[in-house]
């Protein structure tokens, strides 16, 4: 797979570069430093922390809430699927 290094934009190839998607260990460590210094952040929480405090499984609770709001699809003959 051909790609460009996210740090220096040098062309890289997964078949030849052991540090892929980076072109070198230097760029890989630079990226790690960016994460460690919080230059990069995840912009949105994956789950709500209050759900963890309550002991609920976030994915299971969300699926139940979504199903309760679902009203089905109306077919051309008027029946609900």
Comma- or semicolon-separated keywords:
2 strands; 36% helix; 81 residues; 2 domains; 3 helices; mainly alpha
Commentary on this structure:
The chain has 81 residues and is mainly alpha-helical. It folds into 2 domains: 2-36, no CATH class; 42-71, no CATH class. 36% of the residues lie in helices and 7% in strands. It contains 3 helices and 2 strands. It has a two-stranded antiparallel sheet with strand order 1-2. It is flat, with a radius of gyration of 23 Å.
Short description:
The chain is mainly alpha-helical and 81 residues long. The chain has helices spanning 25-36, 49-53, 58-69; strands at 2-4, 11-13. The chain has a two-stranded antiparallel ribbon.
> β content, as a range?
5-15%
Structural class: mainly alpha
Strand order of the largest sheet: 1-2
Question: If helices are DSSP runs of H or I spanning 4 or more residues, what is the number of helices?
Answer: 3
Rg on CA atoms, Å? 23 Å
Describe the sheet with the most strands. Answer: 2 strands, antiparallel
Counting structural domains, the number is 2
For the secondary structure, the number of strands is 2
Basic shape: flat
H-E string = EEHHH
């Amino acid at each position: 797979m051909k790609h460009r290094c996210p740090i220096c934009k040098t062309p890289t190839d997964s078949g030849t570069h052991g540090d892929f998607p980076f072109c070198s260990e230097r760029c890989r460590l630079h990226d790690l430093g960016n994460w460690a210094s919080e230059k990069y952040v995840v912009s949105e929480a994956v789950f709500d922390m209050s759900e963890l405090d309550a002991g609920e499984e976030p994915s299971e609770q969300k699926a139940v809430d979504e199903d309760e709001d679902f009203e089905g699809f109306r077919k051309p003959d008027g029946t609900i699927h």
